[in-house]
């Protein structure tokens, strides 16, 4: 934990300020010169205490979090340990998910990532010019993130439940990619993130869509719920590696080439799940394996219709969010309390729809 994090933290029970009792510290090659490796945070108001271990403040109380969310955090912590690599290709994938948000939008903003995983997106945001980045995760994925990006000078990592965030209204921008749909109550998670925004703040999320995913909800999800999510991560990785071979082969040898041909011959019909399969045809086998593994390990996975995503935003005080169908199987939603930001995002989306990048907008 970097000492500069302390003023930004708030007690998850009463939102009070913390007193820091430092334990072990070590020199670190960052702007602050040192890292608090162990210690204790005591709330000045309610006197609740939370440890700092292995450089991370642990602001999770299992009595306040649901057992489902705690279990999901543990399972995804296992997933990130199995697929911990960092890759420069993640930047394009990240901004595909967040489009019409682009790197320039992040400049000089205080940013929250709700569900930091192994830290790949937090690193991208920090490198894109954000003033400060806070990444939280409920499970031990936070330790993987700390190993990967904990050294970055303007990046702070905290173990925390999305529904019990240890912050007041301090963020210019918050985002969550692929996390809310794995929560016990996705809408409650979304609302909690919104509650940490400044009065003029903005938010962007990406979630699984119900539309076009009937085969997953009817065929894959029952197997996942009954069997694969209960397997040890090492065993599941062997299974996912086997299943990834046909997925990788079809995407590389069929979907990718066919999409290029169809783009020049509009009369050709679209093949099954073409938008997504052609998109992942750009990935290597390890990344495809990670996608398959990720789908099979999750204890909970909701596939959310567009109407529900719209309702989340409207109920949170954003009457006109920007919602985009990504890869024809998921939803990206953006909203801001600054109307000009919404207008800018809508304009970017319209330009993309009416240009050669239309395929990007739809995928």
**Helical residues, percent:** 40-55%
Q: Measured on Cα atoms, how large is the radius of gyration?
A: 21 Å
CATH superfamily of the largest domain: Vaccinia Virus protein VP39
**Might you state the CATH topology name of the largest domain?**
Rossmann fold
What is the CATH top level name of the largest domain?
Alpha Beta
Q: From the structure provided, what is the oligomeric state, counting identical versus distinct chains? A: single chain
Low-confidence stretches: none
Terminal-residue CA separation = 38 Å
Principal-axis shape: globular
- Which secondary-structure class do the elements indicate? alpha/beta
* β-strand number: 13
User: Any idea what the CATH architecture of the largest domain is?
Assistant: 3-Layer(aba) Sandwich
Question: How many structural domains in the coordinates?
Answer: 3
Q: What does this entry look like structurally?
A:
- The protein has three domains: 1-59, no CATH class; 61-209 and 303-362, 3-Layer(aba) Sandwich (Rossmann fold); 214-297, no CATH class.
- Helices cover 40% and strands 20% of the residues.
- It has helices spanning 67-82, 90-98, 120-127, 141-149, 186-194, 214-226, 233-264, 274-280, 285-297, 306-315, 339-353, 358-362, and strands at residues 18-22, 25-27, 34-36, 39-43, 49-53, 56-59, 110-114, 132-137, 155-160, 171-177, 197-208, 322-326, 330-336.
- The model has no long low-confidence stretch (mean pLDDT 93).
- The strands form two sheets. An eleven-stranded mixed beta sheet has the order 1-4-5-6-9-8-7-10-11-13-12, sandwiched between helices. The protein has a two-stranded antiparallel ribbon with strand order 2-3.
- By secondary structure, the chain is of the alpha/beta class.
């Amino acid at each position: 934990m970097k000492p500069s994090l302390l003023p930004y933290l708030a007690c998850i029970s009463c939102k009070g300020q913390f007193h820091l009792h430092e334990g072990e510290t070590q020199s670190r090659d960052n702007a602050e010169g040192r890292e608090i490796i162990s210690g204790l945070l005591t709330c000045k108001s309610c006197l609740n205490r939370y440890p700092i271990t292995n450089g991370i403040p642990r602001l999770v109380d299992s009595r306040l979090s649901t057992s489902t969310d705690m279990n999901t955090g543990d399972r995804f912590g296992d997933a990130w340990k199995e697929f911990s690599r960092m890759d420069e290709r993640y930047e394009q994938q990240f901004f595909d998910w967040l489009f019409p948000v682009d790197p320039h939008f992040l400049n000089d903003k205080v940013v929250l990532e709700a569900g930091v995983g192994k830290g790949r997106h937090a690193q991208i945001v920090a490198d894109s010019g954000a003033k400060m980045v806070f990444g939280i995760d409920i499970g031990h994925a936070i330790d993987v993130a700390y190993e990967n990006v904990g050294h970055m000078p303007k990046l702070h990592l905290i173990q925390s439940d999305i529904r019990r965030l240890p912050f007041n209204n301090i963020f210019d921008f918050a985002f969550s990619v692929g996390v809310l749909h794995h929560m016990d109550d996705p809408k409650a998670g979304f609302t909690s993130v919104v509650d940490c925004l400044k009065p003029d703040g903005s938010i962007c999320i990406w979630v699984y869509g119900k539309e076009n995913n009937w085969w997953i909800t009817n065929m894959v999800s029952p197997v996942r719920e009954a069997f694969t999510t209960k397997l040890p991560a090492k065993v599941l990785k062997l299974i996912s590696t086997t299943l990834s071979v046909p997925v990788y082969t079809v995407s590389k040898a069929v979907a990718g080439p066919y999409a290029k041909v169809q783009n020049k011959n509009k009369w050709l019909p679209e093949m099954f799940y073409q938008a997504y399969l052609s998109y992942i045809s750009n990935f290597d086998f390890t990344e495809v394996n990670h996608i398959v593994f990720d789908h099979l390990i999750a204890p909970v996975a909701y596939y959310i219709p567009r109407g529900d995503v719209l309702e989340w935003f409207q109920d949170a005080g954003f009457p006109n969010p920007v919602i985009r169908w990504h890869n024809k199987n998921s939803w990206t939603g953006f909203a801001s309390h600054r109307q000009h930001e919404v207008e800018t995002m809508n304009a970017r989306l319209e330009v993309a729809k009416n240009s050669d990048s239309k395929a990007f907008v739809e995928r």
